[in-house]
Amino acid sequence: MLSQLIFLVLALALRVRCNTYTWAYSTYLDVEFSFSCNDSRILLTDDEKVEWITPQHKTLGPRYNDSDYLVRDSIRTNGQELVIKRVSNVHSGIYVCMVYNNNILRKRAIRGLNIYKPLYHNLGEMYIDNIIIAVITCVVFLVPLISMCVIYKFRYMSKEDKKRKREMKRKYHEMISQHYGQTHTNDPHYEDLSENVKAKDVNGLGGYDNPVITAL
Prior knowledge:
Residues 31-111 form the Ig-like domain. By secondary structure, the chain is of the alpha+beta class. Helices cover 41% and strands 19% of the residues.
């Protein structure tokens, strides 16, 4: 009994799923696609006329033709097929097929195109719009933020900050000068060289003067 009940529930679920999306279709972008108004529920007869209503609520009669749509006749029925010349996101939505017999509405049929999303050849096509939006959003957010930080750092410094910065530079230069001065002072070669420069010999020559050799 339980197994029969489970089988019945699964069968009903499968039937509902199969019937839910028989009227809806998915296709790639930038390709031609066509709807047929005729199916097992409509059963078009001779001399009936068909009109189509687009997702933009535009009515297309038999032999309608523009840059987006073409309505084609079948052998027996006027306007039986709707052709979308080049599918784009604008063409996504619900299409209604209106069947008239002697100018009296007999039946309606619903067709859907890319209700959820179109088909894609690869993941790059699917997420390219989201990637572009994310990049633009980051740029729009980061550019003002970085600009504000730069302006705050280099323009809106208080007098105390400027004075502190100058004082740090002065101490840095003093430290460098003291370091080099102390290094030369503690060097014994530097002291000998200084004494040699200052020393005078008996002939009045300095430490760096070249001695004159007199021939005997």
